[in-house]
Design goal:
The protein has 207 residues and is mainly alpha-helical. It has helices spanning 8-22, 25-48, 51-63, 66-83, 98-158, 166-171, 177-191, and strands spanning 173-175, 202-205. Strands 1-2 form a two-stranded antiparallel ribbon.
């Protein structure tokens, strides 16, 4: 069974980058914890793969290696040498090498199928990660909006000028994801020559 393993040098670079950015070993520990969580998630994905998924991944990985290229170069060279009469052996697939053409065509079909199987599974994983990113981003926006509301209330209480900034009042509104998606779709339609009706991205005020 294959196990996902994050290379030690990559792990160290990520931690060192966090230390350089913040100078905090405690935050570097958070990065280490996140790395461990990432590795565990990848390992769980590997364990959940079916036998056909493992075969498809292996074939895809092997067909994308230089060993695969070298094997085919040797195979084609021997095939051509024999069937062109360069070796003294009796040709079994003379020019125009119909048998070789058929074998290579079947091989291409099978390889393309294996690649598509692997790509479909990778696409599913990518969709799951995108959904997770969206959930985290929405949660972060929700939390930041409420923190901004609290800070603005404190500024108003202290009589600070920053509390009277109209841009802050706009930022205190919560983003509606469905409105953002509609706006993006309208921008795409507008780019294609269709109508575009802008909509406000903020719908709920958290005062």
């Amino acid at each position: 069974m294959a196990h996902y393993h994050l290379p030690d040098d990559v792990r160290k670079r990520m931690i060192q980058a966090q230390l350089k950015r913040t100078g905090s070993k405690r935050l570097a520990g958070v990065v280490e914890r996140n790395i461990s969580t990432l590795v565990e998630i990848r390992q769980n994905m590997e364990r959940r793969k079916s036998a056909q998924d493992r075969i498809a991944d292996w074939v895809t990985q092997f067909s994308g290696s230089m060993i695969f290229v070298y094997i085919h170069l040797v195979w084609f060279a021997l095939w051509l040498a024999i069937n062109l009469g360069w070796t003294g052996l009796k040709p079994f697939d003379p020019y125009p090498f119909n048998l070789l053409t058929m074998i290579v065509s079947l091989e291409a079909i099978m390889l393309a199928t294996f690649v598509l199987i692997s790509q479909n599974r990778i696409s599913e994983i990518a969709d799951q990660r995108a959904d997770l990113d969206l959930q985290i981003n929405l949660l972060a926006e929700y939390e930041i909006t409420r923190v901004l509301t609290l800070v603005d209330a404190i500024a108003d209480h202290l009589g600070l000028e920053v509390g009277k900034d109209p841009e802050v009042d706009e930022l205190k509104n919560e983003v509606a994801p469905e409105v953002v998606l509609r706006e993006m779709e309208q921008m795409k339609n507008h780019a294609k020559g269709g109508p575009k009706k802008p909509k406000a991205l903020k719908t709920e005020t958290l005062d």
